[in-house]
Amino acid sequence: MKAHIIIIGDEILIGQTIDTNSAWIGAELNKLGFDIWRITSIHDNRIEILNALKEASGKTDVVLVTGGLGPTSDDITKPTLCEFFGTRLILNAEVHLMIKEMMSRRGFPMNENNSRQADVPESCRVLTNATGTAPGMWFENDGTIFISMPGVPYEMKYIMNQHVIPELNKRFTTQSILHRNIMTYGEPEARLAEILSGFESSLPSFIKLAYLPSSGVIKLRLTAAGNDSNILSSGLDEQVKILYAIIPNLIFSEWEESLESVIGRLLIEMKKSICTAESCTGGRIANMITSIPGSSLYFKGSVIAYNNSVKTELLGVSDGTLSRYGAVSEQVVIEMAEGIRQKFKTDFSVSTSGISGPDGGTPLKPVGTVWIAVASEKETITSRHVFGNSRIINIDRFSIAALSMLRRQIINH
Amino acid sequence: MKAHIIIIGDEILIGQTIDTNSAWIGAELNKLGFDIWRITSIHDNRIEILNALKEASGKTDVVLVTGGLGPTSDDITKPTLCEFFGTRLILNAEVHLMIKEMMSRRGFPMNENNSRQADVPESCRVLTNATGTAPGMWFENDGTIFISMPGVPYEMKYIMNQHVIPELNKRFTTQSILHRNIMTYGEPEARLAEILSGFESSLPSFIKLAYLPSSGVIKLRLTAAGNDSNILSSGLDEQVKILYAIIPNLIFSEWEESLESVIGRLLIEMKKSICTAESCTGGRIANMITSIPGSSLYFKGSVIAYNNSVKTELLGVSDGTLSRYGAVSEQVVIEMAEGIRQKFKTDFSVSTSGISGPDGGTPLKPVGTVWIAVASEKETITSRHVFGNSRIINIDRFSIAALSMLRRQIINH
Fold this sequence. Notes:
413 residues, alpha/beta, five-stranded mixed β-sheet, homodimer, elongated
């Protein structure tokens, strides 16, 4: 059971618009058990559309096409579909009425462009669209289903949800595909793969493992495929249990949650509060924490101490410590974390001081070096990391390392 | 002059990851004058990769492939490339050394997986990668150039910028395409298009205008195409001059610079300093400011006052003001901006207080409401905006509105 997604639009090819339709369609079809064979993005051009349709014929069960159905002159999909399927455009009364009503609701007169949108290929089944003026179309040809939809994301989603997904679900009783996304932090991909090589080779044949790294976080995706979703689900449960036994300290979520979201959940459960004192991360940690709805319940605030005077005056870092050890040092992050925790009266605090780059490195403290401290009533712990040369990436990785340390301290509390 | 982009990765097909690489590559190649013929996303699977490479051969001048180059076992691109090009993997000493140095800097031992990443197909030219362990590869076969790069966006971008774009630029002398990206803030797209309708219709035939909106910033892209780049360039200069005459107050850069970068440049030129006091933006403004290299020259720090106690104790906002007007009010942002400017002893300060959502709105202060103040020695100015319902988008739009106000105050000083 295979599907092919074809995206029509020059704006996609020249990178002016990022195609999010194919990801959405892919995820929905995947849930139905379809193997997405390919996604192909092509020019808004008669020859290219004809070629793509020809190439797609007979390769998969379903071909989903989006784009090229607007009222303006650069849209030529509909006549090209007629040419390909050997049919002609005829006025569809139901669609014409829907468009007329929609225009009058919005207070616009019905013009010629709108009327033309009610013309549909004679051989297709019309998929009505209550969210816009372009209907979807369903063709069947030589054993392949072709579905054409507008490229505007919410119109495409309406037609998919209203017509396409229920119909495909009815027609194709199929193999299930289940995923489990285990989030880890603490080992790089190559090292994690080494630790998990035995686990991977002893997976049952219907479960596959993939590594998806991003800014130091590695998502382990377990995918199970088969006919009985109960077997798949319990098979995945069992493998997740084994993973926990092998790397208990690396896993922070088994449901694709971000670190800042996990931390938020923990703090709400435990009724604890946090604050941050950031130098090199410049507010990034606070920004990540406050991206979570409801974070005002546990996050009190931060001091971003870019300048050393802020470290001494607001956070109480001593001049002596700064001059003896330098701003990027274990001693300074300890004083920062303890200083802000006292000032903001929170249960936990986290602090960072490092060199994001591109300049400012020394042989002993190269660009990419960071010191992190997490303070609580019980203790203050620290760690030092050295990442790469890119400023933006370093700020991100410093912040994620700090959140990971914070999460562990919250749990160990 | 045509190009084809092939994206390898199951995570793209099942919609777990939105493919942003192809849009970035498409935009860059388009600038060089390439017609992007197709973007094809395929499975991480030997047969599918071989088929896609075979189909792509001879169709375009350049085929750019991303993905499938990680150290783990789900990555099989490299052996498949060897099979397709009839070559074998050999250890590349330079790459091996780069990986070793990178691992030792990060404090990790070099394991077998890392070593394997230094194996490259014998017949390719290696494109070194200073941002990760997987190098890029350049093949030439039957008149088609094939370029394979890692799928991690910043690694792909590094290899494109460092190797691929300069080389393609040298090899393909072509019709010139020049772009000028004029950055504006202050009017929504539909209104800006109305203001510029006369400008657009009187553009010379070789110049086109496009609107690219993002978080309130609208990039006006002028594209000139033709054989003589001098004519194109002076034609663009002339149109930019006309634009400045029509919308002098909306333009903040004509070189695709971000607001935070423009602000940094201005502050360095004028030897002035800033700080921020953020409530609803939660550190996002500081994060944007400190993303700019060298920002420590003008940015002293911030107080993120999520909790009202931080507003009173650290910023000196009076309890009376808070209880009389509420935290989201003109009076509070004025006291925040003036309080932090005094405390941090900077020339300028900016403050925000608002309701990011999804909860916390009232009929008088709905979700999406923000008050912003900018303080300087001369005066304190304020503004109020109401944006949408999405928390993440609101935080972004609040921050950009604040930076825009800050920029105008710096200029008017």
